[in-house]
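Record minuted for everyone:
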Amino acid sequence: MKYVITGGAGHISKPLAEKLLNAGHEVTVVGRNAANLEALVTQGAKAVVGSVEDEAFVQAAFAGADAVYATIPPNFAADNFRHYQNVVARNYTHAIVANNIKHVVVLSSIGAHLGNGVGPVDGIADFETLLKEHPQVNVKALRPSYFMYNLFSMIPLIKNANITGGNFGGGDQKVVLVHTSDIANAAAEELLPLSFTGFSVRYIAGDEKTGTEIATALGNAIGKPELPWIEFTDEQTLEGMRQAGLKETMAEAYTTMGKSLREGKMQEDYWKHRPALGTIKLADFVQEFAAAYNAG
């Protein structure tokens, strides 16, 4: 089988490509930086380098594929992030249809069932909608929860203020967490047999913890057992992101996502279709967190 993996050598795309290569398949990885793809090329992958905002490039990159793993890479420089997501989603969809590709695994997100009001997830929901317009394409939408990896962004706050938190996660609200390795495993489980048909959704999660439980686990790992989880207001969150240098539309989007999470909307469909939890728990991830914290 020939697979095309978008996302370059990212935290999901790289281990996914390695799993497909180890299974003896032909793998093409699509990325923006040739140097980042060298390790995969050494393992037998073909690299194609270019911008997924270029429709002609994407069509050529997808040519001959039996299946595609489609993820919209982050672009924090975009003036309008949803517009950027829509451009990439259209390019992917056009290339999938033009190349008569029958199986696509999409990296979507928890909260995509809403379509609007979840900040950066809204553009991914748009991608799901676009693909639904082509019933000849079998689509598996992976909807992982909050990436444990994103907790690394809290390191400066911990070091500067000895607190952590967000505009969500207060009280007894559970935040659903997932490790990128579990997402890569799930993607491989779908891509190797290609047994999915029509449009279907798969939720992926590894742990379910309150903000206080998250803070305690992180704090214990770095020698700060009293580390608190502070639930910030939306205004405080927005201002903090501005001060961190995020563009206004991006800061607004992530603040909106936290609000949706806090209000229970983002995770509501997850709880209705709660999956078996993955293998990597927060207790495992905190060792990675401590290493990054101490390295800084």
